[in-house]
Structures are given as C-alpha cells and as structure tokens.
Design brief:
Order of helices and strands: HEHEHEEHEEE
Oligomer: single chain
CATH superfamily: Glutaredoxin
Strand order of the largest sheet: 2-1-3-4-5-6-7
Strand content: 25-35%
Distance between the termini: 64 Å
Structural class: alpha/beta
Number of helices: 4
Radius of gyration: 19 Å
C-alpha cells in the first residue's frame, strides 16, 4: 500500500511538472518593424518579459508586410507581428495575444491602431490614454477584443 502511494505521488509530480513545462513554453512571434522606430524595441522587450520568443525582422518596407497580411490604414500602427497564423498590429498587450492564442477566434488578427500613450512600449510617465484592442477579419469587419481605461 505504501509503495502504491509513492508511485501515485511520483506520477502526480511527473504530470504536474509536464503541465508546468507546457505552460512555460515560450510563444514564437515574428515582428516586422522599421529600423528607426524606438517604441518597437520597447514593445519587443514587453513581449520577451511575458515569455515570447521574438524574431525581430527589421525592414525598410513595413507597409509591404501590412499589405501582405491585410492590415488596413484604420488598423495600422508602427509594427506588424505574426504569431500562430494571426496578425498582431501595434502595441497590443502580451496578455491579449495570449488570450487570442487560447481562444482562437475566427479573425485575421488583433490591433491597437495608432500610437496610444500608455500602451505597451508607449509608456509616457504616469499618463495613459484609454484604448481598445480591436479584432479584424479579411473583410475588414472589426470588433472590440478588449479595452483599457486611461489615467490622468
């Protein structure tokens, strides 16, 4: 009986350890950005701090990437990322990307259009503008994915 309990305990440890490793596995993401953009580097650091394995692709023609993946002017920001087949445009918080990957909605991607003060990589002191993360599809339908309160 004692040996059975020991084997069960060992089995649970192995299962739990495997589960932790699976959750801790870094998320691969490819980010296309301009060589002159400083906020992009801050967003990359935000991703790395949140367990993303970032492939940083510096290009002088970010617009070509946006065109390739259907990012409209309304959705556009300074960088475009690809993760597990989804487009991530702009300063999207890492947790929203993780939610996207967990829920797998039928969208082309998510975006924080423009350059919003207080979004990841765009920190400007204590002031944060309110903003929305928007999902979009190939037919340019949009929907609010998440929203963030501003501070004054």
């Amino acid at each position: 009986m004692k040996i059975l309990k020991i084997f069960l305990a060992i089995g649970l440890l192995v299962v739990n350890a495997a589960g932790v490793r699976a959750e801790d596995k870094p998320i691969d993401i490819v980010v296309h950005r301009s060589p002159t953009c400083t906020c992009c580097g801050k967003w990359l650091a935000h991703l790395k701090e949140n367990n993303f394995n970032v492939e940083d692709v510096v290009t002088n023609d970010v617009q070509a990437i946006k065109d390739k993946y259907g990012v409209t002017r309304e959705m556009a920001s300074c960088h475009t990322a690809i993760v597990d087949g989804y487009v991530v445009e702009g300063h999207v918080p890492a947790n929203d990307i993780k939610t996207l990957l967990k829920t797998k909605p039928k969208v082309a991607g998510i975006a924080v259009p423009g350059m919003v003060d207080g979004s990841p990589g765009m920190e400007m002191g204590d002031t944060k503008d309110a903003y929305k993360v928007v999902s979009f599809d190939r037919e340019n339908h949009t929907k609010v994915f998440s929203s963030y309160e501003g501070t004054q």
